[in-house]
Amino acid sequence: MKSAAMIKKMFGSKHVTYATVLNSMALLYNALGQTDKTTMLLLEASSIVKHQTGKYSLRYATSLTNLSTLLQDTASRRWALTEALNITEALVGTQHAAYINKLSHLISFYIESGNLAAAKEALNSGLHLTRTLYGEHSLNYASMIRSVGKVHEASQDYLLAEQSLKKAYTIAMEAGDTSTFSIAPYEYALADFFTTTMRLDSAEHYLASYHKLLFSKVQSIAIMRFCSLKA
Hints:
By secondary structure, the chain is an all-alpha fold.
């Protein structure tokens, strides 16, 4: 809070630096489960960025992506994510990390909303791009493979789903730091899959590991918040 007030005093309430601080605060409130405050901050940040940088900027595309995570209406979420992807492509093309990031968010949305045909089409592009830019032993590629697994799971092709989710988890374990939160989404995906297929011992194993990482993350955020309040 103090840092936000200081940045606001230095640059004013319409500066992109202040919007960046608001985004950081929104992530904190979101982790703490305070959705109303998160939404308010993201809306304000998005408005500032659009006003200062214009519609066609990577900052605005990112603010749209952040905002989409809290939108409840399916059409609004699809618009925000598609707009973010189109803006990013217009600015940097498809062979760029920023484009892959926006594409990943759109793929996740398609899977969540049950639009598996669109998810598969986007995944074909996503797999090729991540393989080309990052290689097959990167967290970015692991994320795409995890999405492939989710599509198979949603299609009730459980054998291929398990193979893909385990492959993604293995890549993530080898590419990332197993003590960090980067592994957590892969453990949760496996826990969710094994729950769906009623293999509860396996589900419990991955869920316990996920909760351990989640608790560590929340604890770190709480400590940071406590320190900022004392500063």
